[in-house]
Design a protein that fits this description.
about 220 residues, alpha/beta, TIM Barrel, 9 helices, about 40% helix, about 15% strand, transferase, thiamine biosynthesis
């Protein structure tokens, strides 16, 4: 997975779109320029069985239409069944090394990390990128940890400069730049796009904020 694909990493489930058609929201976000999409179907009312499979296939097809990687959160069977480009797991979702062994090199593997030790373990297990945060306070994930700021990203980037990092947690267009300046390759968002009145515009503005923060001379890649 190249770093450019992490620039604007959109995460969404069917229950994250404030009652709107989630596929319509995803389509708008893709038109706006999101560079990666993760299907995270969790929480009350989460789809299961055939409805989930159908929804996942719809998300996959939209992502393929725009040439954007389609990642599934914490569901290897669904990822395999839909021909997903990758799988993302948290620290409580299983052993990263075992999952890498099972998927081989045919899928991207992303791992959530909350400190440098977890980053080291994910790297050793074969992670292609890290999701680090929450950078800022967030309400999108009720079980989220306390905000850690950008320092952890800086520490992990310093220790493992070859491992791409995407920041997550409370990130919006107006606070994305410090995340990139700390060493992240991109920003990951849920509500900043999924709850936006105009998801396409929100995605476009995030993409521009990340692009400006990555301008030569502003940060070291």
């Amino acid at each position: 997975m190249n770093r450019e694909q992490l620039a604007v990493y959109f995460i969404m489930g069917s229950g994250n779109t404030a009652g709107r058609d989630p596929l319509a929201v995803l389509g708008s976000a893709l038109r706006g320029g999101v560079t990666c999409f993760q299907l995270r179907e969790k929480g009350p009312g989460a789809l299961k069985g055939e409805p989930l499979a159908d929804f996942a296939a719809g998300c996959r097809d939209l992502c393929r239409q725009y040439g954007v990687p389609f990642i599934v959160n914490d569901d290897l069977e669904l990822a395999v069944a839909t021909g997903a480009d990758g799988l993302h797991i948290g620290q409580e979702d299983g052993n990263a090394a075992e999952i890498r062994r099972r998927i081989g090199n045919r899928m991207i593997l992303g791992v959530s990390a909350h400190d440098v030790n977890e980053a080291a373990a994910a790297r050793s297990a074969g992670a292609d990128y890290l999701g680090m945060g929450p950078v800022y306070g967030t309400r999108s994930k009720p079980d989220a940890r306390a905000a850690s700021g950008t320092e952890l990203i800086t520490s992990a980037k310093s220790a493992y400069p070859d491992l791409p990092i995407v920041g997550i947690g409370g990130i919006r267009e107006d606070n994305a730049a410090p995340v990139i300046e700390a060493g992240a390759s991109g920003v990951s968002v849920i509500s900043a796009i999924a709850h936006a009145g105009d998801p396409e515009r929100a995605a476009r503005e995030l993409r521009q904020a990340v692009r400006e923060a990555l301008e030569p001379g502003k940060v070291s890649k």
